[in-house]
Write a structure and sequence with these properties.
This protein has a 6-stranded mixed sheet, with helices on both faces. It is built from 8 helices and 6 strands. Strand 4, helix 5 and strand 5 form a beta-alpha-beta unit. The protein has about 260 residues and is α/β, with parallel strands linked by helices. It is globular and about 50 Å long. The chain has a single domain, classed as Rossmann fold, CATH 3.40.50.1110.
């Protein structure tokens, strides 16, 4: 798309690319066929509605990714698409590792966003919701997540990068917004995260199909079955250097038409 044809910084957004991990991929909000939807799809639908039709939408996010491969692989691929809006999320998997430099993660996130602004009219960093109230070692991860949100916000002060701080949303830690694994937002949680992003962009929220209510299993305390199905496999992948996203490809690697009816 030629620069003269691109929307202004205040006009409708006609192309959107997302990079990140499972949060941006949409895990926890699966369609009936099992493909993830998530907040990025809902944001794309809202932007399409605001533009009066469809927009180009790409989603290069892959579950399990640490920040380094997100920025080394997905970031240049997204810039090559020449979108009008780029959303960046990352660092959530990094803070779940045994040791991490919060300052280094914040530096890399903000540096990438500022580089993107050289060619992308609108760039935003979008943090995930805070799941730590319901996770093993939740207090440790909560402290790290709080530190990361503060560090990113501090570094972005005075820049043109938008920061949508879902981590600090007081509603999202509630159990009703989380899927059974308690690590990924469910359909209700993704809808709330999308509403926060669209509000920050000045776009209206598009109604989505009714999300299913969280099942009884979600309200139970951490049972042996929960540990067997979710926690132990997660620990095993980290001990062996594997990821749930190994060998997976991005769900929308190129800018393809996307309208409100696709959400």
């Amino acid at each position: 798309m030629a620069r003269s044809e691109r929307s202004s910084a205040s006009g409708p957004i006609r192309s959107y690319a997302a990079i990140g991990d499972s949060y941006s991929e949409g895990m926890g909000d699966e369609r009936p066929d099992g493909t993830p939807r998530g907040w990025t799809d809902l944001v794309a639908a809202g932007l399409a509605h605001a533009a009066g039709g469809s927009i180009g939408y790409a989603n290069l996010a892959i579950r399990g990714r640490l920040l380094a491969p997100i920025l080394d692989d997905q970031f240049p691929a997204a810039l090559a698409l020449d979108p009008e809006l780029l959303s960046i999320n990352g660092g959530g998997n990094d803070i779940l590792r045994p040791s991490v430099s919060i300052e280094a993660v914040a530096d890399r996130l903000v540096s990438a966003a500022e580089r993107a602004l050289e060619t992308v009219p609108r760039v935003m960093i979008v943090s995930g919701g805070d799941p730590t109230r319901h996770l093993p070692l939740g207090r440790v991860f909560s402290r790290r997540g709080n530190e990361l949100a503060v560090a990113v916000k501090h570094r972005l002060a005075g820049t043109d990068v938008l920061f949508v701080d879902n981590w600090s949303d007081p509603r999202l830690p509630e159990l009703r917004f989380w899927s059974v694994d308690r690590l990924h937002l469910n359909a209700h949680g993704h809808a709330l995260a999308a509403a926060n992003v669209l509000a920050a962009l000045g776009a209206a929220v598009v109604p989505t199909p009714d999300a299913p209510d969280a099942g009884d299993d979600l309200a139970r305390p951490r049972t042996a079955e929960y540990w067997r199905r979710y926690v132990l496999p997660w620990i095993g992948r980290r001990l062996t250097g594997r990821s749930s996203g190994d060998h997976r490809q991005a769900k929308r690697p190129t800018l393809e038409p996307f309208g409100p009816e696709h959400a």
